[in-house]
Amino acid sequence: MKEELESAFPNESAAGLSRREAVLKELDVIFAEWITKIGAAGGLGEEESRRSSGIVTLGSYRLGVVTPESDIDTLCIGPPHVSREAFFTSFVEKLEKTESVTECVSISDAFTPIIKLKMRGVSIDLLFAKLVRPLAEGKTLEEAVKDDEIIRDMDEKSVRCVNGFRVADQILSLVPDQEVFRQTLRFVKCWARSRGIYSNVLGFFGGITWALLVARVCQLYPYYAPSQLVNRFFRVYDQWNWSKPVMLCDIVDTVPGFKVWNPKTNPADRQHLMPVITPATPAMNSTYNVTETTKRILLDEFRRGYEVVKNVEARKAEWKDVHAPFPFFDQFRFFVSLEILAKTEESYFKFSGWVESKLRMLTKSLEGFTPGMIIHPNPEQYDLRKSYEDWPLGCGMFIALQFYQDMGSSKDQGAFVGQAVDLRPALHQFLDVVNQWTEKDAYSGQHKLRLQQLKRPRLPEYAVQADAKKLRSNTTPSSVV
Asked: Is there a catalytic annotation at residue 189?
């Protein structure tokens, strides 16, 4: 399995890791300079300004699962005198004037506000959290952020950002062997991406959820090797009773005032279909976006994964078969396509982020839209390959439609030959939501969304070719052991 993992989902090289560390140090210096300038304007000395600020990493980088294509999720922590507004205005201006920074885009109105940029070719996502109180003398930033008290009286957006660091740190502290956890997680992430089920926004599981699921299996089987844990991963979640949450530790409410996941007292929490709970206070469900459709697809993939892994162990299959790409366009005949088009980097990042954040509303409206129809959303964002001369930037996304017949029931229970399916009401409703984008006038003429119903023969070449390339890449020889 290790050889297959290095081939399909390689670690970042030593040189690549060194470059990333250098970039983070450079970013830390830029942030410290900005913090000092803001403090000086308020009459604070340099040492006092900087003591309660700094940057920390989170997500996959924090967990130690880094590939050459990985971005770095980074949290900028500011002292009480620095506002979020200043971070998303004057700090962005400073970044834009920095020679090593390119493609800097601020998305301040997102649910979790973010700055996306590239520094010396490394992609970085910047979040911001504001401390409520200055750090105590002699206490390091990382030590302070690990303490539950750090979030007391903190604003909601800052809590969400800080908890990205705190959850990753808790995961590493709660697994019996960090290196075994990392190897297992690498394989599971590779599998999830290849099978088209890696997307929190679309209602599948995001990176932190996959990490939590792997960590729980590591806890259950503390002495197993990564290849054995992959087997147990599929078996455990194929057989899991999803009326019960997956948790790494008991839920402890140490800081009053925050909503903690509790289906006994919160009716909304009882509606969650596949709860996976974060270990840091306040405990939250990382899978609140899961729908009946994505749950069905996830369960099918857990079951398939378990069957293929058993065949690998019986020497009837190879490890590459476990994460073989899902043949999306070969599997289905009917599709809804969404093409997000833009003329500038800034309008593309902002508009595509807005559309993507609302996509789950479209999939929800298509669920049960007509008897006998089920859907299968695809998280892949296909490069348009300059398909439109007037629109240099953009991506294509697809939702598959599948129809089934219930032979023993009436037409109300299933699809039937000659049935007409008009999805326009659902598509128009989605367009109405997209048109509520608050910045649409600011970027007038710079963005566009195209929605179409397609049959397989009319699929665009850019998508068909990209999927064919993925399928071909999995046919190269690999080891069975």
From this structure: yes
